[in-house]
Amino acid sequence: VQLQASGGGLVHPGGSLSLSCADSETYLSFNVMGWYRQAPGKQRELVATVTRDGRTIYSDSVKDRFTISRPSAKNIVHLEMNNLAPEDTAVYYCLAYVFSTRTYWGQGTQVTVSS
Fold first, then answer.
1. List of E strands, 54-108
2. What are 51-72's pLDDT values in tens digits?
3. Which label site among 43, 46, 50, 66 has the fewest CB atoms less than 10 Å from its CB?
């Protein structure tokens, strides 16, 4: 399994960014894919997850601003982030699993929200 994340970067407050994560090297069909993030000095926290059949979970801090999607139940996951705020600054990590006892992580991608 190799989860490859892309997107991220620097954006002004109120701006938007998109993240994507894909795994093309496994025959596994992940039941869950999603994103966590880790800000400096803080623990890694849930951002959002989506199941193979499209059920989503969002943290309260991003609900109504972020949208997670998984096209055609493939091993690809997107995160559309709108109305970004400085507190969204973090390294964002993609995750995927068939069963939660074996979670795969991608490399982090930096999101910086600053004026």
1. 56-58, 66-69, 76-81, 90-97, 103-105
2. 999 999 999 999 999 999 998 7
3. 43
